[in-house]
Give the backbone structure.
Amino acid sequence: YFLGHRALDYLYLVPFLLATALFPALARRAAEGHDQLLVLSEKALRYIMLITVTMTFLTMLAAAPLIAWFAPDGAFVRSVDVLRLVIWGMPFMAMHLLLSRVLLVTERERDFIPIALATMIVSIGANLVLIPRHASMGAAAASVFSLGLSAALHVVYCRRAGLGVPLLKAVAGSAAGVLAAWAAAVLVMRMAVPQWGPRWTQLPEAPGWGPALAMVGLWLVLIPAVVLALRVATAAEVRQLSGLVTGTDRPRNGGPVE
């Protein structure tokens, strides 16, 4: 379980750093009013979900070679299934990281207490029920369920604060764009190089890293095209959020933010 969970611990840094970088912009929008904060929160959640769902699906596809890299002797082969399951907690983790900062800039810190207590109690209960029956897979399922509960509670408390961030486009739209791009990549590879054996749920079986890297490269190229076609994202929004993350969107000399 520890080896399978390690990738989630490492990848956690990505949504954490993104949410932290966006915190000053969220604070400025909160000072301008809930409407401005809501618009930015929805955009930020959409793009963080695009990134984290892509990383999640890629990790699931590459679970076997990743575990083999950490443990080349094959002693931890069961960790592959643990990783493929527990990594799906990352999108939930990304949601609660961003929405916790939304609550923070609206001075709703007290809401963290019931969220943390409920998540802790459910996590302990889920582990007590699932681990004796399913061992490491039960622990992985309990982790994903607890992270999902935390994300759901953050959504509930944001709505109580008058910040009902639209989830359909942010979550479902992002996931649909990433998965549609993968499906397109698989179809292209099946027509172009069928001998590589591209599959829907794993990287090509052909020997060496070349086929796998080519498949992933094509997929990453297709993702922007698909999400733009589905209107999950726009080029203007990408530029705006890039400026927020890097700090170039900050107002100068106390002037308003555009």
Observations:
- The chain has a mean pLDDT of 82.
- Residues 112-160 form the longest helix (49 residues).
- The chain is about 75% helix and 0% strand.
- The radius of gyration is 20 Å.
